[in-house]
Amino acid sequence: MGSLQFEDFVAGWIGGAASVIVGHPLDTVKTRLQAGQGYGNTLNCILTVYRNESVVGFFKGMSFPLASIAVYSSVTFGVFSNTQRFISQQRYGDSNHAPALSDLIAASMVAGVVSVGIGGPVDLIKIRLQMQTQPFIKANINLKHGAIGFPAYRGPIHCVSSILRQEGLAGIYRGAGAMLLRDVPGYCLYFIPYTVLCGWITPEGCISPSPSSVWMAGGIAGAISWGTATPMDVVKSRLQADGVYLNKYKGVIDCISQSYHSEGLKVFVRGITVNAVRGFPMSAAMFLGYELSRKALRGDQAETNL
């Protein structure tokens, strides 16, 4: 079990790297739509970013997630897989026993809680770097950094050191409450649909799902999870982007209240289309990278019991 446990973490790392490369451009659009100003819809946001920043703008802030999201995914997938096996071992006496729905829910919730510890700072830095070219309303007040138009952060390391200096350790976990409310149910709607769909798509007699089955099940699971997580994702993005030039929100409840009073209920579904669309290729790449890597690490060659 120790070897298999290690393989789950390595495979999660590879899957995470694949998902960042595939999904970062749409992630930038999603963040700008949810936390920025001046974008009417998804297409307008894409055109504006391209016009103002060229193709490079879509990959802004990618170096940090590429280096760190792999670790984040490694931990998340490793924790989920090993928690599921631990539960199966305790309940059925066999770690490879097919999990019940309640087992999947429990393992998904544990993965969601653990993910915030690592994913909170990763998301924060990524969003701060994505947002620092935003237009600002001068009338809005005292900006935290000198001149409008100057980047607040020179890169990921400078971003981390600036946040620690100005906001302390708590600043690194800004938006963690909203992320917890997003990720605990979000991972349930991520791993459970994937497991169910893989079982449904895979022909009887096969030891493991085919790459096309993994791709399809992972993509659908990602679209479901990200689509339903959008309301709390909006709150999380706003809280984390808030500290670039000014502090507007005091916390989750205050962010929800201010957002609702200024923009109505529609604000909480802002970016839902790009979230769901981006969720498909990102999660398809994530699960495909994970499953293929795990199979290669385990040396599995046979696809069926025949």
Automatic annotation (TrEMBL):
Organism: Chelydra serpentina (Snapping turtle)
Solcar repeats: 3-86, 99-200, 209-296
UniProt-listed PANTHER family: MITOCHONDRIAL BASIC AMINO ACIDS TRANSPORTER-RELATED, SOLUTE CARRIER FAMILY 25 MEMBER 48
Lipid bilayer topology: Multi-pass membrane protein
Keyword Transmembrane: yes
Pfam families in alphabetical order: Mito_carr
Family: Belongs to the mitochondrial carrier (TC 2.A.29) family.
Protein name: Solute carrier family 25 member 48
Major place of residence: mitochondrion
GO molecular-function terms, A-Z: transmembrane transporter activity
Superkingdom of source: Eukaryota
Entry's localization field: Mitochondrion inner membrane
PROSITE patterns linked to this entry: SOLCAR (PS50920)
Keywords: Membrane, Mitochondrion, Mitochondrion inner membrane, Repeat, Transmembrane, Transmembrane helix, Transport
Stretch forming the signal peptide: none
InterPro entries the record matches: MCP (IPR002067), MCP_dom_sf (IPR023395), MCP_transmembrane (IPR018108), Mitochondrial_Carrier (IPR050567)
Gene Ontology cellular-component annotations: mitochondrial inner membrane
